[in-house]
Structure formats: structure tokens, C-alpha cells
Amino acid sequence: MSLILDDVTLTYPDGDGRLTALDAIGLEVPAGSVTAVVGPSGSGKSSLLAVAATLVTPDRGRVVVAGTDTGPLDAAARAALRRERIGIVFQQPNLLPSLTAAEQLQVMAHLSGGRPKAARARAADLLDAVGLADLAGRRPHQLSGGQRQRVNIARALMNEPAVLLVDEPTSALDHERGAAVVDLLATLTAERGTATVLVTHDRTHLERADATVLVRDGRLVDPVTVPGGAAA
Description:
Layout: E1 3-14, E2 17-29, E3 33-38, H1 45-52, E4 60-65, E5 68-69, H2 75-85, E6 86-89, H3 101-111, H4 116-129, H5 145-156, E7 163-167, H6 175-192, E8 195-199, E9 211-216, E10 219-220
Parallel strand pairs: 3-8, 3-9, 6-7, 7-8
Antiparallel strand pairs: 1-2, 1-4, 4-5, 9-10
Helix pairs in contact: 3-4, 3-5, 4-5, 5-6
């Protein structure tokens, strides 16, 4: 299942007028692939993620998540869709300081009404997948920055999302740890069949993406995705 943005336009109030954050964006991210989004600050990358996450409703256009057109959905249905079909990896992990790595994941299943035994098993599987099986009992202050970001990624995958939205996951990491996180994202995307959007400022990571799009002034400079992660 894929993520589709079809002719998406988003504006915000700006004095007496409107500021265009996204201008007729068209993008499709197939399941099992990573599309990297690059562009200067203020170009519209964050707005693109917010619309894809259904956190913001565009003025015009369609957002289709795993076959579901989100336009007709009310607020409750959108929240349910986000919870069940969309995983979000924030720039900062924002882990709960009192919970262990395993508990960070299990609480996601609890919020969705999942069974505790199944949640424990899935949390263990995901922590193993991100290379932290032996650190499941540690709390955030006992983990390195790269390890915390791996927990962040595992947490986003806890409810088996169809779409994974990743916002600058390497900004607080050195290059080596950042590259390891991007490698992990690419591997998990292929293994788990998510449609992954990766916003990044570091073009050295683009070789791990299946496609790259460049956003400037709210537009895709080249709306055709570029195979192999080549710069748009």
C-alpha cells in the first residue's frame, strides 16, 4: 500500500492574505520504498509531512493513505487512521523518561487497545530488529543518542503502519551514527513494506533512498521521483 499526495495545495493566513506552503504537490511513495525529501529551510518539507500525516488538512487535493482517501474522514476517523496506519519518527525521540525501551513501544499498543502479551512480543521483535534486544530494560538516560533514535523508530513501527514519516532523524547525531540510522530505516522499509518519506538535510544519506524529490517554495522542483536516490 502506498502514500499518494495528489495536487495538494496548502495555505496559511499571512496578514491580509494567504501564504502558500504547498503548491499543487503530486507525489506517490510505493510500499517498501524510501522517498527522500530535500530542500532549503522554509521550502515546505515540514508542511508536506504534516499533510501526509493528516495532521493538517490541505486547501485542495487528495491525501491517500494505504488506499484510504483521507479527505472525507472526520477528525475521529483521521485520528484512528494515524494511530493504525501511520508511523511518525520525530526529529527528537521524546521518549518518556520513566519507561524502559520495551515499555516505550508497549504503551503504543496499549493506546490502540492491543493485548499486553502480544504487545510484549511485538516490542521484543522490533527491538531485536533495531539491534537493541539486549537493552530492552534500559531507560532513555541509559541509552546513547543513536540508541534512543532506534527506539524512536521501533516505536513508530509498533502498530504495523503502512506509511512511515521520518523528520530529520539524524540531525542530533554524528555522521557515522546518522548513516547507521538511515541504513536501518532503509532495511526496515524493505522488510516491513512501509511507504517511507524521509525528510533530511544531509545529502550524503540519499544513496539509501529509492527516490529523491526536491522541494522549493512549496513546489516540487522536479515532480518525477529519481531512482537510486540521485539528487533532484
